[in-house]
Structure prediction request, 91 residues.
Amino acid sequence: MTTSTQAERGVIAITGASGAVGGRVARRLAKQGYPLRLVVRDESRAPHLPDAAVAVASDYTDHPAMGRGAGRRLDDAARLCPRRRRSRAGT
Prediction:
């Protein structure tokens, strides 16, 4: 089995990295040695991971900020956000 080195792996941007699911994914990928860029709304809530870059985007719909957060050299991205629940009335 061939394993890649960190230098061969591309940067992975993870939105929602300050949340429960995104944080868990970010920690798991960091543990495996992937270079990460964590895109969050509040930098103070980003998980503290060695060598992970942090970028701030105010909202998923702020496309320019999301693009800046992802950066120019990006090989993979994972968009993690909560699923919205419907009310019992169906709205």
Q: What stands out?
A: Strands lie at 12-15, 36-40, 53-56, 76-79. The mean pLDDT is 75. The two ends are 51 Å apart (CA to CA). The first helix runs from residue 20 to 31.
